[in-house]
């Protein structure tokens, strides 16, 4: 079913607060890459007498860069969740500015290492605060675009920083050799000063940024340690997040294997430093392509499936890279590898933003970042010794000789690991159980969505309101219907269960608190029976005459309550409902996302049979609603139900406005003499 008259939403960068944050991120990212290049170069220059000492000195900078994440990562996330994120970022930027600026003036290796550790500690506060802020500034349906832009500047600034560094080094060399006052100074100082200034610019941008909600810690438990443990526990205990983290870490480990042995591998293929640079650049080009085009390529495939698929393909490509001894082909495959990694990262970040609640998002991002760095450090540290121990082996097959050395082995191991992790993530997170993967993928390649959600074209517009108990659906559905009627539309406001004669009797059975022994399957079938009647007698006729149908609950309620709540197989619940509704899917589902603790306390009177279920039941229901919305963001509007009703009404009206058809021309109204109906 296509949404009639749907208008394109404004680009995410049209959102002024997000644009400002994004600019700050871009400047910081450029500064960060410049920082790596300048510090490693400076460390090498300070210890240039002995080759081994010089290598160790540069290695020391890398270790100093990674160590704080291992030790302090989760703690920093707690700050992002507890304190005013704007102030955290502002203070962090000022501190980074001062520390980096001091490095060229102190000019000692010890200070390079101490300053690196300090800057990295500060980064651990800045980054989770920023990551947790993005979903506060952009609507959920634009989160994917926002994350694409964030990742673009995170990696896209690397080649720019490399060019800038080269230019600044030339200028620095010129300055130190011509200006007497600067004689004997290190040319990298100029890059560090520019790096410091980048942080200062970011501080200014963040300071002038309004609209970041304050976190005062009131919703958190008081002990910092407890919060850290809770964050770690949350990641392990949340099936979907666990799958995501496993997948993203697997992709990181595979990437680490490449970084670790790329230099010797390219050398073995006969390439020099330039070829090494080309392979390095190919990863970034691929990542950029993957982030921008990947999610758009298979729009009909569930995001979770695409996530697992991209990691699995990345693993297989890596194994191929290891076995193909041809540099041009390796470069092309590296672009594909980078693209798969880019898709996995953008989807992973977006899913975390959508499915992890605000109070824990900072910790989840922080946990991911710190564990990703540990993984990278371990893999990079282990890759070269493993390659060296394995050595070079040549397989002689008659005339044909095939070389397989340590770098090939490391890449094969990395590839196999990524493939296994991709498959594991797919199994952990699959939200389309019962729909065969290959058929689903082939359908997505053809631009179709397989299974229950095949499009049915109807002239009207179908909007469903979903959410837990007391979330505010009835209030908002009613206000929406009034608003639409005021504009002259033919509106049918309805609800489930109980909008038909039979439905009313079914509702009485389903919600009667005395009906304790009803089996879960019978319950699911009764709700489906009510829905079949509802669709046939009320919804479909209204849609076919061109009306707007606003329903309070629909299929998602069964998937959430009977599927997740009663732990029935989601594929079964989906199937019986597809049959009951004839595959009719709303153009838009508004999910009013309200924590059950809040919603249940809003209800008055005696609890009905479902309301009387324990809190864990309602929490499972909420999680499932959110997961359904995250799997098809283009068909959902998710609003935070703890906001005041009038704020929700505005958000809902803005979204529905986008899909409303153009008003019926006056001449048709004159001709029919009726209220305007919706036309396609
Ligand atoms: N955003 C809101 N903030 C605070 N209270 C609200 C909000 N929206 C609705 N309420 C109040 O909460 C109660 C439940 O609202 P409503 O009936 O709209 O919820 P519901 O989701 O339809 O509930 P249920 O389906 O469980 O009956 C009502 O008293 C309503 O006035
Ligand atoms: C449609 C549908 C509903 N339910 C549950 C959810 C609620 O507890 C009640 C309906 O009550 P409301 O006040 O009218 O929202 O029924 C369900 O479990 N499964 C469904 O498919």
UniProtKB/TrEMBL annotation:
InterPro entries: MFS_trans_sf, P-loop_NTPase, Thymidylate_kin-like_dom, Thymidylate_kin_CS, Thymidylate_kinase, TM_effector. GO terms for molecular function: ATP binding; dTMP kinase activity. ATP binds at residues 467-474. It is found in: Cell membrane. The keyword Coiled coil does not apply. Residues 660-680 are annotated as: Disordered. One of its GO terms (biological process) is dTDP biosynthetic process. It is a multi-pass membrane protein. Keywords: ATP-binding, Cell membrane, Kinase, Membrane, Nucleotide biosynthesis, Nucleotide-binding, Transferase, Transmembrane, Transmembrane helix, Transport. Its EC number is 2.7.4.9. It comes from the Bacteria. Pfam families: MFS_3, Thymidylate_kin. Residues 465-652 form the Thymidylate kinase-like domain. Phosphorylation of dTMP to form dTDP in both de novo and salvage pathways of dTTP synthesis. NCBIfam families: DTMP_kinase (TIGR00041). HAMAP family: Thymidylate_kinase. Belongs to the thymidylate kinase family. This is Thymidylate kinase. It comes from Nonomuraea mesophila.
């Amino acid at each position: 079913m296509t949404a009639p008259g749907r208008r394109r939403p404004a680009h995410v960068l049209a959102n002024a607060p997000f644009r400002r944050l994004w600019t700050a991120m871009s400047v910081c990212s450029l500064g960060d890459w410049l920082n790596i290049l300048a510090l490693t170069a400076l460390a090498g220059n300070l210890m240039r007498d002995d080759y081994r000492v010089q290598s160790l000195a540069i290695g020391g900078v890398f270790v100093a860069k990674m160590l704080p994440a291992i030790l302090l990562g989760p703690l920093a996330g707690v700050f992002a969740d507890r304190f005013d994120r704007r102030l955290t970022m502002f203070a962090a930027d000022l501190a980074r500015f001062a520390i980096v600026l001091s490095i060229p003036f102190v000019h000692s290796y010890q200070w390079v290492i101490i300053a690196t550790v300090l800057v990295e500690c500060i980064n651990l506060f800045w980054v989770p605060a920023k990551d947790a802020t993005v979903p506060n500034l952009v609507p959920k349906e634009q989160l994917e675009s926002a994350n694409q832009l964030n990742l673009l500047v995170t990696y896209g600034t690397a080649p720019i920083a490399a060019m800038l560094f080269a230019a600044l080094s030339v200028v620095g060399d010129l300055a130190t050799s011509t200006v007497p006052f600067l004689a004997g100074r290190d040319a990298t100082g100029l890059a560090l000063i520019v790096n410091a200034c980048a942080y200062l610019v970011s501080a200014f941008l963040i300071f002038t940024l309004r609209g970041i909600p304050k976190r005062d810690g009131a919703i958190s438990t008081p002990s910092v340690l407890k919060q850290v443990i809770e964050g770690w526990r949350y990641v392990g205990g949340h099936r979907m997040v666990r799958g995501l983290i496993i997948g993203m870490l697997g992709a990181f480990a595979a990437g680490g294997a490449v970084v670790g042995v790329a230099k010797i591998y390219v050398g073995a293929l006969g390439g020099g430093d330039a070829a090494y640079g080309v392979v390095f650049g190919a990863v970034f080009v691929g990542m950029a392509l993957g982030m921008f085009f990947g999610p758009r390529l298979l729009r009909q495939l569930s995001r979770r499936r695409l996530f697992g698929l991209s990691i699995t393909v990345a693993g297989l490509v890596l194994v191929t890279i290891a076995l193909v001894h041809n540099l041009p082909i390796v470069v092309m495959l590296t672009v594909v590898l980078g693209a798969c990694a880019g898709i996995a990262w953008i989807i992973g970040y977006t899913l975390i933003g959508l499915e992890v609640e605000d109070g824990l998002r900072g910790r989840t991002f922080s946990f991911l970042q710190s564990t990703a760095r540990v993984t990278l450090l371990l893999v990079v540290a282990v890759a070269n010794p493993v390659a060296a121990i394995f050595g070079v082996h040549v397989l002689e097959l008659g005339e044909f000789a095939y070389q397989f050395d340590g770098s090939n082995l490391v890449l094969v191991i990395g590839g196999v690991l990524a493939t296994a992790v991709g498959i594991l993530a797919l199994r952990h997170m699959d939200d389309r159980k019962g729909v065969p993967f290959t058929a689903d993928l082939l359908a997505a390649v053809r631009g179709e969505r397989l299974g229950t959600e095949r499009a049915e074209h109807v002239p009207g517009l179908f909007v469903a309101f979903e959410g837990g108990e007391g979330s505010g659906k009835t209030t908002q559905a009613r206000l929406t219907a009034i608003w639409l009627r005021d504009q002259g539309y033919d509106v049918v406001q309805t609800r489930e269960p109980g909008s038909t004669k039979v439905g009313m009797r079914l509702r009485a059975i389903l919600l009667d608190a005395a009906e304790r022994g009803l089996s879960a399957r019978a319950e699911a079938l009764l709700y489906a029976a009510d829905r079949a009647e509802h669709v046939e007698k009320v919804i479909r006729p209204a849609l076919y005459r061109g009306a707007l149908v606003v329903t309070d609950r629909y299929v998602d309620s069964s998937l959430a309550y009977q599927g997740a709540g009663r732990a029935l197989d989601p594929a079964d619940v989906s199937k019986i409902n597809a049959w009951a509704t004839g595959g009719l899917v709303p153009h838009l589902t508004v999910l009013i996302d309200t924590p059950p603790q809040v919603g249940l306390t809003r209800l008055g009177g005696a609890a009905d049979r479902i309301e009387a279920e324990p809190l864990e039941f309602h929490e499972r229901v909420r999680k499932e609603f959110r997961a359904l919305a995250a799997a098809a963001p283009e068909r959902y509007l998710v609003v935070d139900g703890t906001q005041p009703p009038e704020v929700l009404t505005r958000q809902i009206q803005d979204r529905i406005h986008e899909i409303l058809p153009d008003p019926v021309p006056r001449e048709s109204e004159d001709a029919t003499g009726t209220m305007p109906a919706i036309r396609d």
